[in-house]
Structure formats: structure tokens, C-alpha cells
Write a structure and sequence with these properties.
Elements (H helix, E strand, L loop, with lengths): L1 H11 L9 E3 L5 E3 L1 E6 L3 H13 L4 E6 L2 H8 L18 E5 L7 H9 L9 E5 L4 H10 L3 E4 L4 H9 L18 H11 L11
Length: 202
């Protein structure tokens, strides 16, 4: 089963990802990519999603699979994968999944992710060719960030970025953190307060 996932990922490629997991912004500095796990049993729809993410100007790495079960393997939730694969080893930032899929629906995948104590923080965006209000409502109640009516468009890709938590850059070793102005003012005023000398009473 793990070999099938690897074949699926390799055949679909990484949309603008590169081997290093980062892109060059032209100045020699690496830019963190947003890793999107695309889950859809339709090869055509997976290609459309990948094309739209590439057209957006880059910044996305696409990992595509054709079923909810394979998505669970990528996330490390599958029974077989959990023995060998750590949770979210591929550091998925957002999941973009079709609703209607055989064996395991997109809703089932959404439920599995949101009921997991560690992976529930990963944003899940649903897709469907059917505009079903009840279906949309049930997905959002389960924790879906959005419900997109196919086909995926540029405006949907732009919204996709807003669901991903910004990556906070780590401070370099040996550098001092700057305190906010308010804290500096408070600490300096506190230290400038003169101490009252104790007077001994005879």
C-alpha cells in the first residue's frame, strides 16, 4: 500500500516544489512552500487543481493522491502507516479534498482528521461539483474551513493561503529579542522609582 502512495505522489509531481522543499525568491533565500494534500479520485480534477496552484505564481507544493485511504497514509493515520510513518511527516499545511469518492468519502477523511488530537489543526477544504446546502453545512459543522464548488478557480486558490497559519521564523542563535516599546517603558519606569529608606523609630 505504501508503494502505491509513493507511485501516486511521484506520478503527479510536486507543483513548483523542487527537491529541497523550498523555492528561491531570486535573492538566494529559501521561501517556505505551502504543502497542499490534494485528494480526488478524478485524475482530471487533480490536474486542474495542480494547474491552478501553479498559475497562482508558485509557493505551493502539491502532493496528490486518488483516495481518502491514501491520504491517511500520507498523514500517518493509516493502520499500516502508523507503524512506520510518523504523524504528518510530510508536513502538510492544508488538505484539499473532493467530497464524493468511493470507499472513503471526503467527509469521512475530514472527520478522521478533525477527531485526531494532533492533526485536527490542519485546515481542510472540501470540493464538490454539487452545490448541496445540507452537505456544505455538515462539512462546516465538522470543521471544514471552506467548501468549494468545482472547478477550482484563481479566487479559490487565493483564499487557500488565508487558511494556512503563517510560519514564524526562528530567531538566529546569538541574537537578542527586542522587547516591545510598551514593555521597555514599563521596566524603565519601574527601575527609576527611588526606594524609600526605612526610618528606625526610637
Amino acid at each position: 500500500m505504501e508503494e502505491e502512495v509513493k507511485k501516486e505522489v511521484d506520478s503527479n509531481g510536486c507543483g513548483g516544489g523542487g527537491e529541497g522543499g523550498g523555492a528561491d525568491d531570486g535573492g538566494g533565500r529559501g521561501v517556505e512552500l505551502v504543502r497542499v494534500l490534494v485528494v480526488d479520485d478524478s485524475l482530471m480534477d487533480r490536474k486542474i487543481v495542480e494547474m491552478q496552484l501553479k498559475k497562482s505564481g508558485g509557493g505551493f507544493e502539491v502532493i496528490a493522491v486518488d483516495s481518502g485511504k491514501k491520504a491517511l497514509e500520507v498523514l500517518g493515520l493509516n493502520e499500516v502507516a502508523t507503524r512506520r510513518t510518523p504523524l504528518n511527516e510530510r508536513k502538510i499545511d492544508v488538505i484539499l479534498t473532493d467530497y464524493c469518492m468511493p470507499q472513503m468519502t471526503g467527509y469521512d477523511l475530514l472527520k478522521a482528521v478533525k477527531e485526531h488530537s494532533t492533526l485536527r489543526m490542519i485546515p481542510v477544504v472540501m470540493m464538490s461539483s454539487e452545490n448541496d446546502p445540507q452537505r456544505i453545512s455538515s462539512c462546516k459543522e465538522m470543521g471544514a474551513e471552506d467548501f468549494i464548488i468545482k472547478p477550482l478557480k484563481v479566487k479559490h486558490v487565493q483564499r487557500l493561503r488565508t487558511y494556512v497559519a503563517p510560519k514564524t521564523p526562528l530567531s538566529k542563535p546569538g541574537t537578542k529579542r527586542k522587547l516591545p516599546v510598551e514593555l521597555i517603558a514599563e521596566s524603565s519606569s519601574y527601575e527609576s522609582c527611588p526606594r524609600v529608606a526605612k526610618v528606625a523609630v526610637a
